[in-house]
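Why VanZ-like domain-containing protein? Reviewers of the renewal asked for a concrete example.
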Amino acid sequence: MKFVRTIAFVLWVAVTALDLYIELDPRFVVDVPVKLGFAAAFVALWSIVFPPTPRHMGKWLAVLFVYYVWMLLNILFFDNAFGREQMHYGINLEPFHTIRNYVRAYNRGYIPEIAMMNLWGNVAAFAPMGFFLPSLCRPFGNLFAFVPTMFLMISGVEIMQVVTACGSGDVDDLILNLAGVLVTWLVLWPLSRHINNLLRRNRYDS
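Here is what the prediction returned.
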């Protein structure tokens, strides 16, 4: 088993280094399926190197959270696959304006691929926060603490995207982001609560 873990560790380091290299090199455009492939390989290999046993669940989960945050920041601010070259973007402060345009396009039978990517990407981008935060930090198991925190976090991202010319400032992005993260929190709350209780017991036992 030790030999298997050693091989998995070498592969994990190699996959992580390659992922960082091609994501940060402007010559490469990494499409979503490739990103998901790297993420799946990262999780699988890390789970072999550092199995998510009850005793080690905290460290295992923390590494996955760091990887997710890195991928999120890359997608939001640097990724060429999402058109993050510096240029002028608009600002929309009218709620549901962009979403209505998507619905109209869908009803006409034609919605551009980039629009679909933007729609579902906004729903999915922050969704893992609905699992990671309440699992790793008990106060976020309270919806009244979690939602305002996510509202401020996502609003800050929207402002930074406008300031750095890496994206548009769209209130509909905020709505979609919050919808995705709230659904994840509600669906996975029993699991995240169980994990958080487990982490607390481990801290007390140690």
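The mean pLDDT is 88. This is the kind of structural detail the renewal will allow us to pursue systematically.
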